[in-house]
Specification:
There is one protein chain. The protein is an alpha/beta fold. It has one domain: Peptidyl-tRNA hydrolase (Rossmann fold). The protein is built from six helices and seven strands. The chain has a seven-stranded mixed sheet with strand order 2-3-4-1-5-7-6, with helices on both faces. α5 packs antiparallel against α6. The termini are far apart.
């Protein structure tokens, strides 16, 4: 019988390159960078078609990963990392932007469909499953822009302040998940 490691994989979704830095679609990258900063580490090792680092938190081995495949192929990077470290899908947590949630809000879920998010579609396709944990960081829906233009733009100052707060809450939720449980994190942060 084959046993998976109990290692956790936390992935922030985004698009690589200066043009995409701090845009709405890069909520995952920005949030995972805040998590890494809070632990005094940087995500700079190159492998698995992305950047990653390995940390220990409360005796738990945790991999932080930023796929550099562009959003639509995020699953390629994630599956490569999971296969290498023998990580089970129950130990995968993905952070990404969500149009259906207002800026400043989070939604934690244990599974579900892609909701039209191409990064999540890619992950579901690679895993052959919708059974993985997510933290959705709200960016709201555009009033005038097309969805593509909207997610590839930076938020205005007022929005960014709300998003920063949501990202800080996401970092705390991740720590509670690692220390206690994902259910406890959902109870505290799904408002």
């Amino acid at each position: 019988m084959y046993y998976y490691s109990s290692m956790k994989l936390i992935v922030g979704l985004g698009n690589p390159g200066r043009n995409y830095a701090h845009t709405r679609h890069n909520m995952g990258f920005d949030t995972i960078d805040k998590l890494a900063d809070s632990w005094g580490v940087s995500i700079e090792k190159e492998n698995f078609k992305g950047l990653y680092t390995k940390v220990k938190y409360f005796d738990e081995d945790v991999i932080l990963l930023k796929p550099l495949t562009f959003m639509n192929l995020s699953g390629d990077s994630i599956i490569s990392c999971m296969n290498f470290f023998k990580i089970d899908k129950k130990d995968l947590l993905v952070i990404y932007d969500d149009l259906d949630i207002k800026p400043g809000h989070l939604k934690l879920k244990e599974s579900g469909s892609s909701g039209g998010h191409n990064g999540i579609k890619s992950i579901i396709s690679n895993l052959g499953s919708e059974e993985f944990k997510r933290i959705r960081v709200g960016v709201g829906r555009p009033e005038f822009d097309s969805v593509i233009d909207y997610v590839l733009k930076k938020p205005c100052k007022e929005e960014q302040e709300l998003i920063d707060e949501a990202q800080n809450n996401a970092v705390e939720a991740i720590k509670i998940y690692l220390k206690e449980s994902f259910n406890k994190a959902m109870t505290l942060y799904n408002k």
